[in-house]
Amino acid sequence: MKTLREAVQEAEEKKVAIGHFNISNLEGLWGVFRAAQSLNVPVIIGVSEGERDFMGVRQVKALVDSIQKEYDYPIFLNADHTYSFERVKEVIDAGYDSVIFDGANISFEENVRLAKQCVDYARACGRDVLVEGELGFIGQSSKILDEIPEGVSFDDASLTSPSKAKEFIELTGIDMLAPAVGNVHGMLRGGVDPKLRIDVVKSIKEAVGVPLVLHGGSGNSEEDFKQAIANGVSIVHINTEIRVAYKKGLQLALQENPDEVAPYKFLRQAVKEVQTVAEAKLRMFNNL
Ligand code: 13P
Q1: What is the DSSP string of the chain?
Q2: What is the distance in A from the centroid of ligand 1 to the CA of 240?
Q3: Domains of the chain with CATH codes
Q4: What's the pLDDT tens digit per position in 202-213?
């Protein structure tokens, strides 16, 4: 079975991106896995601190492992936005494939100090765990937005600076970088987010070399994804659109069958809607 590091390297070489989808439960996991399986592409399951607390930090790991083994499939588990060293340590100890230390909203110096501590712990753990760092604030919630979140702006000075990114990587040794390139966590009501700054993606990639991870993918266009991937993005994160799909499936099923009380019946539509969205994104990310 290939490791996540190998899968990311392969994506970089092929100029495609691995889809990263957040889940909150087993239905989400089946929806995402079936989408990837139908296209035969690797996939990353993401769980934020809140999502993994809900599922169980070690329980979600056991579920992803069980699919990886039973289907002999490159499905990986990432601890999404993690805000302290203690919580990074927890997921490395639990066997996750990768972790994001999110210091986007703290000072550069503090971000460097904590990201480096996470990298040192990962390197000493005896497994190959990828550590991602974040530079540039893009908001924090995967939800429907009425306006761009406070603290997020798209002027050049607010986007990630290529030279700062280079310095950050040299000081911390992180494996991958999540930059601010016009992306935003969450999705504007109406489903269309501002355009990405492909020129900034390109300059950052040229400066840093390491794989770039595009967060906040909900609401971005296919054309933007293609350009971002061609210019250095190797993983794309989608959460809000997956949440919306899940809720839509659940609402539809309950409306159509208000007397149904068997969860395995009324949750089927939710799995299906998640699968449909994940599959459409995976086609875009993998040039299929
Ligand atoms: P969206 O909710 O905008 O898709 O962002 C997801 C994300 O980046 C999770 O890390």
Answers
A1: ---HHHHHHHHHHHT--EEEEE-SSHHHHHHHHHHHHHHT--EEEEE-HHHHHHH-HHHHHHHHHHHHHHHT--EEEEEEEE-SHHHHHHHHHHT-SEEEE--TTS-HHHHHHHHHHHHHHHHTSSS--EEEEEES---S--SEESSPPTT---STTTSPPHHHHHHHHHHH--SEEEE-SS--SSEETTS-PPPP-HHHHHHHHHHH-SPEEE---TT--HHHHHHHHHTTEEEEEE-HHHHHHHHHHHHHHHHH-TT---HHHHTHHHHHHHHHHHHHHHHHHTT-
A2: 6
A3: 4-285 (3.20.20.70)
A4: 999 999 999 999
